[in-house]
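Record format v2
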Amino acid sequence: MSQGNAAARAEQVARASYGRLLALLAAPTGDIPAAEDALADAFVKALTSWPTTAIPDNPEGWLLTVARNRLRDLYKSAAHRTSTPLREVEVSVSDNFEPESIPDKRLELMFVCAHPAVEAGIRTPLMLQTVLGCEAAQIATAFAVPAPAMAQRLVRAKRRIRDARIPFAVPTQQDMPTRLPAVLEAIYGAYAIDWMLDSGESVGESLSAEALYLAATLATLLEYEPEAFGLAALIAFSLSRANARIVDGRYVPLDEQDTDRWDAGMIARGEGWLRRAHSFGRVGRFQLEAAIQSAHCARAATDSTDWLTLRKLYIALVTIAPTLGARVSLAAAIGRIDGARAGLAALDAIPDAALDRFQPAWAARAHLLVEAERPREAAEAYGVAMSLTADPIARRYLDEKVRGLASS
Amino acid sequence: MRYSLLMHYPEMTEADLGEDVLSEGKAAFDAYAKSLDTAGVLISAEVLQPVAMATTLTLREGTPKIQDGPFADTKEHLGGTFVIDVPDLDAALAWGQKCPAAQYGVVEIRPSAVFFHRGQWQSAM
């Protein structure tokens, strides 16, 4: 067994199982930092012992057992140091786990991360780190925060979860309406970040696939929450177009994508969830966003885009969730229907100072200026859009747009 | 886990409140304390005397500094405490929401770190 093989396998298991193992280790005590340390030790042990022995048949079970033993040692020595008996730590689980028999505590962990006693701004980063296994530095980049500051905020939040003893529990039906939105937001955040960081990677390996899994699990388990189904549908529709979005390292805008490259199975899953969500008769932000994506995906069957329907959906979305992204998309839809001048007027009417630093707004403005035959201003707008993104694929796309203007 | 429910609210005299409100409030606190007791989670409950009776002490500057009045002068004061023993923060929050003081004031919920019991300090964590 080569060192490289074992390392590759350990990394694969880490990516697939990190959150599952961490949730299980942290649930009995709420001590996430101790669970993280124990799990990290188990991965180190895997890297040293798998090359000399063999990769175990059930690597997850192996890692869980090793990490649990580490935790048991830790609590034993802690008990030795203090005079008081510590809480019973659940460690008496058989070492021969079947992967399917390992319970999934990630839902509980998600509700811990999005607990009202946890500061709102740190919930998504916390969920990304603990449930999905993202690195603190990666999260810091996505949130445009210095890495040490992000790391410190994460540590503080985890300490608070442990010391105030926030329970690993799914809220009651009564508390669900106040507790669920934060979890949906955090999953949505996980999915949105993926497009920024891994725009070139294959879907199966990416975080958005994990976000889809989390949203689908959440929806299925909660059963009666339309917005959870709406979020699952939204992510499925977006994922269905992943292979058409980047072709040969180049970004392809939605209306120029080859629909043969869209994943019909994924679109069907999205439609199924969206129907399920609508059956409850309680419209919400994520259902509307999913319906918008569904309308775009319909081009695969009809060969045209129904902009009138899209405008209606964007108006509804802006009414209940007036985010900058929704407002800019509405302006773009108006530009399609009523012409570029109307689109630019709608864009200028957005009452938000953050618009000047919002990259999609500059990309949309540049596009509308091209349509309005104002190439000099369009080139300027593309330039600003380029300065606001670090993604090389997006920069290349925008750069080519500017060159196209110059040569025409 | 032991949690202290610290009740902060504007101080009112008996005359300010009036007899009806006062007796209503007493009944509410009586029912609340009895429900905590019946549930077996109550460690202690104290309603404090007015803040004018408070004395603050600090040795932060080396020598004892004793001052009349509370630590910080705000419109709302610590009016009393309930110490309860419940499994987790959600349970403490649920009891906190039932506290009559939450209706007109703020209830701060603080987990205990250590407590003195049977002649020695014990860890609450």
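Chain B touches chain A through twelve residues (CB under 8 Å).
Residues 19-38 of chain B form the longest helix (20 residues).
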